[in-house]
Design a protein that fits this description.
Blueprint (H helix, E strand, L loop, with lengths): L3 H7 L4 H8 L10 H4 L3 H12 L5 H23 L7 H4 L4 H11 L10 H19 L4 E4 L4 E5 H4 L2 E5 L7 E5 L5 E4 L2 H11 L9 H28 L5 H4 L2 H14 L2 H12 E3 L5 E3 L1 H6 L1
Helix pairs in contact: 4-5, 5-8, 7-8, 8-10
């Protein structure tokens, strides 16, 4: 009887190697510590709720998201405990990378389906999380009751005291109180800019900044408003991703402005006048003909 096992050994074959060549090799994709973190479970849950853009998105969900991001940062840092993190690894827990990570967890695409409220909440939550990690004694969050606490002297560096009956009506003194006080979410941006600096470029003049902002906002408003109208016409649930009670209140105020005499005067002014090459006001050709 021919012994196949002996034949394999005689000609230098290994049974295990032959078996391995018959199997399909699987590609193993290594994930980064931030992608493997267990904290992503809670973070994703809160982000999904935030993406729905409910009326409580800023006050209720922001504190919860910030705590989840904080846990994610801490967990990622612990994963580096045995190894010295490279510069690329450190970038994983910086603002840009954390924001992109949050977006990817819920498959959010800001180009195809922008949600400004969601983006603001995510950005502020990340800012707060970074400060809770880097300045742990100055910031804290009660996620259960959705409360944000900041050290008093950090939240309000200067105390303004009213001086009754004096020409200089106010007196400014440095706030030295180190107790944690509850603050609203708007404080986060200001304090973050103080702690880390604001890298955004500012225009040469305030008027130029306002003008550029208004032009861009008008274009974006038309685009998003038109999209919201389409969602409402089609009775699409995506309508509620970009519109809530506060949005409808703002739209009502805008509608009032459009139907006011002030808007009519503004419209006529834009038709009758323009800026000449010297930056001065001059009448347009249409206004000159009608005069």
């Amino acid at each position: 009887m021919i012994k196949f096992k002996n034949i394999y050994f005689k000609y230098g074959f290994n049974l295990n190697e032959v078996k391995m060549t018959a199997d399909v090799k699987k590609e193993i994709v290594e994930k980064s510590p931030i992608e493997n973190a267990k904290s992503n479970v809670n973070l994703k849950t809160h982000l999904v709720l935030a993406l729905k853009n409910t009326s409580s998105i800023m006050n209720v969900l922001l504190p919860k998201i910030s705590v989840s991001v904080k846990e994610l940062i801490i967990e990622t840092k612990k994963a580096w405990a045995s190894n010295t993190p490279t510069s690329d690894a450190k970038k994983l827990i910086q603002m840009k990378a954390l924001r992109e990570h949050c977006y990817s967890l819920v498959n959010y695409n800001r180009r195809t389906d922008p949600n400004s409220a969601f983006e603001m909440v995510v950005t502020r939550a990340i800012k707060l999380a970074l400060m809770m990690v880097d300045y742990s004694s100055e910031f804290d969050v009660d996620s259960k009751n959705s409360q944000i606490f900041v050290m008093s002297k950090v939240a309000t560096p200067t105390i303004i005291e009213k001086l009754e009956g004096q020409k200089s009506a106010t007196k400014k003194t440095a706030n030295k109180d180190e107790k944690l006080v509850e603050v609203n979410t708007g404080v986060i941006d200001r304090v973050y800019n103080i702690k880390y600096g604001n890298p955004t470029r500012t225009p040469k003049t305030k008027d130029a900044k306002a003008e550029i902002s208004f032009k861009d906002s008008a274009k974006m408003f038309y685009k998003l408003f038109n999209k919201a109208l389409n969602y409402a016409t089609k009775e699409d649930v995506k309508f509620f991703h970009s519109v809530d009670e506060d949005t409808m209140k703002q739209l009502s105020l805008i509608d009032t402005l459009f139907n006011s005499d002030a808007y009519e005067n503004m419209r006529n002014f834009s038709i009758d006048y323009c800026e000449d090459i010297e930056g001065k006001l001059e009448k347009t050709s249409i206004a000159k003909k009608s005069a």
